[in-house]
Design a protein that fits this description.
single chain; mainly alpha; 6 helices; 136 residues
């Protein structure tokens, strides 16, 4: 079961990477905003939400000697977000990338587990907040 959960986490990180590569602008902010939106999009799309909700539910109990799916996901996303964070002026881009990833995943979990799909205002607020954090 853990292998399926870890694979789901890696697939989500791959989707985020592709979204960041296709960001409409070339700026670090555009790439970071696209990545954050790709994470939380999983909660806004009912088809995706069901699958991600199942992966997160299965990820609650870690298996000894295996990477916990949430840790794997946050680490993978943090690596993706570190570059834009560095370009935006983060003094410690690795820590900033991981913090942005952790916040985005926490928001995703909240929306999935509460049954509340984020609207455009929710997503925009999260992107604004996390981009501002990267700049601090």
């Amino acid at each position: 079961m853990e292998a399926i959960v870890e694979r789901g986490a890696r697939e989500l990180a791959g989707q985020v990477r592709r979204r960041m590569e296709r960001a409409t602008g070339d700026s670090a902010e555009d790439r970071l905003r696209a990545g954050i939106a790709a994470v939380v999009r999983q909660a806004a799309d009912p088809r995706l939400a069901a699958g991600v909700r199942a992966v997160l539910a299965a990820a609650v109990t870690p298996v000894p000697h295996a990477g916990h799916a949430i840790v794997v996901l946050v680490d993978d996303l943090g690596s993706l977000f570190a570059g834009p964070a560095r370009e935006l002026g983060a003094a410690d881009s690795v820590r900033a990338g991981r913090t942005i990833a952790g916040a985005a995943v926490a928001a995703l979990q909240h929306w999935l587990l509460s049954g509340h799909a984020p609207d455009e205002a929710d997503v925009e607020q999260l992107k604004r907040f996390l981009v501002a954090g990267a700049r601090s």
